[in-house]
């Protein structure tokens, strides 16, 4: 079905833009190629890189911890580094707040925020629409913008540690 739809639309646009159809068979070949891509390629790629793959990546994210440091809370998160929303995990430990990115990002690595450097934590709207963001301001005037699930829990727990 996608092949017929694509081929028909391609044919229609060629006719509307040029006033005539010069290569009817090219539309059929393009439709068949598109149908094969959508019919076979897309299901293959989503099966290979779909939710199971993403969940596997999430389980493999482990922060670099100090000797006696222990993770108390962890969850999926994004940290905005410039315009990129870097995906990974946020960890609340007994010593600091840690964000560790997953390997599919352009900007990789671990970001550590010591509790004693946290000046303020408050909720924010992601894209000025969704109430799932946290902004952390530090005493050295840095700002960290995160997207998390259960934002209120994260704000409460970080504020408890930062006192």
From TrEMBL:
Signal sequence range? none
Q: Which domain of life is it from?
A: Bacteria
Keyword terms:
Membrane, Transmembrane, Transmembrane helix
Q: Any stretches that span the bilayer, and where are they?
A: 24-46
- Residue ranges of every copy of the GRAM domain listed in the record: 65-146
Q: A single Pfam family, by name?
A: GRAM
Any keyword Oxidoreductase?
A: no
Q: Which InterPro entries match?
A: GRAM, PH-like_dom_sf
Q: Does the keyword Membrane apply?
A: yes
Q: Under what name is this protein listed?
A: PH domain-containing protein
